[in-house]
Amino acid sequence: MFLYIYLITNLPIPNNYILWLYILFCYFFNRIYYTVHIKVMIRSVYFIAVDEIVEGKEYYLYKVHTDKRLGYEVYASWDYVRLASDSTKGTPVVFERDPDNSSQYYIRMIESNYSDHVYLTRDSKGWIYLDTKAEASRFCFFLDAWGRINLWHYHGNEDSKNFKLHDRGGKNWLSIDGYKDNFGNIDRNLFQVEEA
């Protein structure tokens, strides 16, 4: 490589030693940078991303491209699902397959403010709150190769009734009015799935 640079630039080595030191520094720095960058990329894919959802296992659902995960907060005497305001907060969820339909799942948060009210449920306006399993909604999902999940209510499909966060009063509340239409317009949120 050094001979190649020397032949192209045709600069005498002794007279331009500062330039040669700079070229050597850039060459080795780039090798170190790319090696570290690749290791970080491999670690983020290999150690963090989930490639399948295992029933009964606890996962965090992060909004894609953020460090915030889903949690809950009391509103109108119910726990409604929202994006936690702090990256250290949030509640793990567990996927439970519907025994009557293997493509649908109940999603259970591992805790709540009210006993047995831990299942994600759609209210009449499309907002997601926590209720008992008897009242809970069922959801479908598609998990891509990067561990991102698109979730939708079982009455919808991959392009309608998708999970969507709405900012209300500085808080991001979860609903199921996200969509992708035939014109390529997308208004939904994907979530990164990571083991709890």
Q: In oligomeric terms, what are we looking at?
A: single chain
Give the CATH architecture of the largest domain: Trefoil
Q: What is the mean pLDDT?
A: 82
Helix coverage percent of residues? 10-25%
Largest sheet: 9 strands, antiparallel
State which percent range the strand residues make up.
35-45%
Helix/strand order: HHEEEEEEEEEEEEE
Distance between the termini: 47 Å
Please tally the helical runs, counting DSSP H or I stretches of 4 or more residues: 2
Total count of domains: 2
| Unreliable stretches | 1-15, 32-47
Strand runs, count: 13
Main CATH class of the largest domain: Mainly Beta
Radius of gyration: 24 Å
Structural class: alpha+beta
CATH-defined topology of the largest domain: Trefoil (Acidic Fibroblast Growth Factor, subunit A)
**Inertia-based shape:** globular
Give a short synopsis of this structure:
The chain has 196 residues and is α+β, with helices and mostly antiparallel strands. The chain has 2 helices and 13 strands; from the N terminus they run ααβββββββββββββ.
